[in-house]
Amino acid sequence: MKQILRLLCLLVTVFVMPAFGQSDSSEENGRAVFNEWCIHCHGEMDRGPLPGTFSLGIKYEGALPALLEERTDLAPEFIRIVVRGGLFGMPITRKTEVSDSELDDIIAYLTRNQ
Ligand code: HEC
Fold first, then answer.
1. How many C-beta atoms surround the C-beta of residue 13 within 10 A?
2. What is the pLDDT of residues 64-114, one digit of tens each?
3. I need a surface site. Which of 5, 27, 69, 80 has the fewest CB within 10 A?
């Protein structure tokens, strides 16, 4: 009986628990990928202008935050199109650099407050 209970606990830990944490770990991974691939253009400008933050500051003239991480209006499909296709000064990001599932995680991170 004890062994069956132990086995049940193990099964719950391995198969059920990860399902609860899924969105969090997706966001966490998205933040890590963002920090690797996007932050050097879309980070804070405390050490001088960064192309992404600087351009978005001019584009929206303060009506929307210049920092992508502070936006609450970004549509998932818009992020996907801009990342894969580029936009003016923003270069394209290939699937060999940021995979589709990593891009899904970036999107989960950038839309976490919507
Ligand atoms: C080499 C610099 C650079 C990198 C790297 C970069 N961006 Fe950009 N990004 C820009 C610039 C510049 C713009 C502004 C384009 C414009 O003028 O409309 C921009 C715009 C955007 C926009 C459009 C926002 C809007 O409201 O118009 C999104 C979304 C975006 N970037 C997401 C990302 C993500 C996600 C990554 C990482 C995978 C990334 N960018 C990496 C430079 C960069």
1. 10
2. 999 999 999 999 999 999 999 999 999 999 999 999 999 999 999 999 999
3. 5
